[in-house]
Design a protein that fits this description.
Structural class: alpha+beta
Strand order of the largest sheet: 2-1-4-7
CATH architecture: Sandwich
Strand content: 15-25%
CATH superfamily: Crystallins
Mean pLDDT: 78
CATH class: Mainly Beta
Number of helices: 1
CATH topology: Gamma-B Crystallin, domain 1
Oligomer: single chain
Largest sheet: 4 strands, antiparallel
Length: about 140
């Protein structure tokens, strides 16, 4: 069976289909970016800070288990990842975070502003990027 539509009806149907697909993407889309995989994957139950942002392949990383308050000046990026930032001090150098702890974690910047990252967040540090001082997991 063949269905015929005029030009205007076909254009309207295409527009409705495009708008419907866009709305469905907004309604069902993931609120957070996917975290890195492979060698850069953040272990389940931990929170990880990364040297690079997601757009620059995450880079070297450091992870912590929950229920800690960590001064980031005493930590280095000790996991190789893609090698960028390996061995650097985390204080002032973290660009992104993955939170796999099961609860909200906080990063405090050098002006004592606290920023929260919900469980499952994987992406760039907000305005704390490169001004991070404390991590509370």
């Amino acid at each position: 069976m063949r269905i015929r539509m005029g030009r205007h009806a076909a254009a309207k149907a295409a527009a409705v289909a495009a708008l419907t697909a866009g709305a469905m993407g907004l309604a069902t889309g993931n609120a957070f970016a996917a975290g890195p995989g492979g060698a850069e994957a953040c272990p389940s139950g931990n929170v990880c800070l990364y040297y690079n942002s997601p757009g620059y392949n995450w880079g070297s990383w450091e992870d912590w288990s929950p229920n800690q308050i960590v001064y980031l000046g005493g930590a280095t990026f000790s996991h190789w990842g893609n090698g960028s930032g390996y061995g650097q001090v985390v204080l002032g150098n973290a660009a992104s975070i993955v939170n796999n702890t099961g609860h909200t974690v906080w990063v405090t910047d050098d002006n004592n502003h606290k920023y929260d990252y919900l469980n499952g967040y994987a992406g760039s540090l907000n305005s704390t990027a490169n001004h991070d001082v404390w991590l509370q997991s």
